[in-house]
Amino acid sequence: MLRIEPRLKSEFVSSGQVRLGFHHVLDHGQASELASMSIECAGDQDPAQYWHMHDLLFSSQDKLFRAGKATYNEFALQIGLDVMAFGSCMADDTHLAKVQAMNDERMTAWAIRRRPSFVINGKVYAGGIPFNAFEVAIQEALG
Question: What's this model's pTM, rounded to 2 decimal places?
Answer without folding.
Answer: 0.84
